[in-house]
Amino acid sequence: MESPVQSESGGIKLRIEKMVVDKLYHCIHEDKVFLFYKDEQDMLHCYEVGDASAQKEISENPDRLENILRRYAGCD
Q1: Which residues contact 51 (CB under 8 A, 6 or more apart)?
Q2: What pLDDT, in 10s, does the model give residues 16-59?
Q3: Contact between residue 44 and residue 38 where contact means Cβ atoms under 8 Å apart
């Protein structure tokens, strides 16, 4: 299944209609990590990960995204 969030040469392409409510999606675009999620009111939320070490770790281990974010947020 194709991800509803994809990095392309012209920018980040979002398929909001294919996003699952309250599921965190990520995208690496131009060496930056972006996070997206759609809430219960169909509002789209977008964040950029600003910490360089977090960006590097997410880029190298995208399957551990949520664990990495929890650790950097001090939740672990």
Answers
A1: 72
A2: 999 999 999 999 999 899 999 999 999 999 999 999 999 999 99
A3: yes
